């Protein structure tokens, strides 16, 4: 019985550590996705500002 309990304990520990690793992995991917979206948003704002400045320059001439 003790041998079987040890095996089950090892299997449960492996499952728990795998779950922890997997959730950490998802967290890392989510963080990268948010950073990438933030980067794209900043680029969009920069492009928009350049466009507005160009329009205002042309309009003021």
UniProtKB/TrEMBL annotation:
| Name the UniProt record assigns to this protein | Uncharacterized protein
Q: Which organism is it from?
A: Acinetobacter variabilis
